Amino acid sequence: MTWLGAVPAWCWWLIALVLVAGGQQYRVVLADGAAADARAETATADKALADYRLEVAERDRRASAQARTEEQRRQAVADEEGENARQQLELAQGRAAAAESAAGGLRGEIARLRAGRSATCGAIAAQQRQAGTSAVVVLGGLLEDADRMAGSCSAALERSRIAGLACESIVDGMNRDADR
User: Fold this and answer.
1) DSSP 8-class letter at 124
2) Cα–Cα distances in angstroms (integers) from residue 130 to residues 66, 112, 179, in the given order
3) What are the tens digits of pLDDT across the range 10-40?
4) Going by C-beta distance under 8 Å and a sequence separation of 6 or more, which residues neighbour residue 26?
5) Assuming Cys at both sites, which of 39, 73, 145, 158 could form a disulfide with 92, CB separation 3.0 to 4.6 Å?
6) Cα–Cα dist 128/12, whole Å
7) Considering Cα of 107, then 109, then 112, then 116, what sign does the dihedral take?
């Protein structure tokens, strides 16, 4: 008999069981090590993700603040130019009112001249009086119509000019400040 036969069978089973249990324990230790490595990697990745989210949130906050500042600056430029345009428009309306007042005085003078012309033409012959009166009446009417049209065109053009200059000024102000 060999020395292998001297060892009882139950010992062989015990040896096999110890070897299998040891192998399983070795696998558990390796798995625990891999799990610990995975947890460490996960923790590192979580920290990196948290740092990235914090960085993105800070960038978003800065960009939002910068956009808000730019919007406020542009609104301030628009408000300032709007106020300038409003003041110029009020000034133009005042000038237009003064011009209308002067035009009313001229119309009154034309009406007085017409009436005076009609009265003085009574002494002249019928033909001459009719021709003279009609010429003064026609010219006076044309002058009144031209004066009214010139006044309304002047007021409209002045409002349009002021609005255009205000728009140009707003755009130039925004572009000038944006280029800085």
Assistant:
1) S
2) 79, 18, 72
3) 888 999 999 999 999 999 999 999 999 999 9
4) none
5) 158
6) 157
7) negative
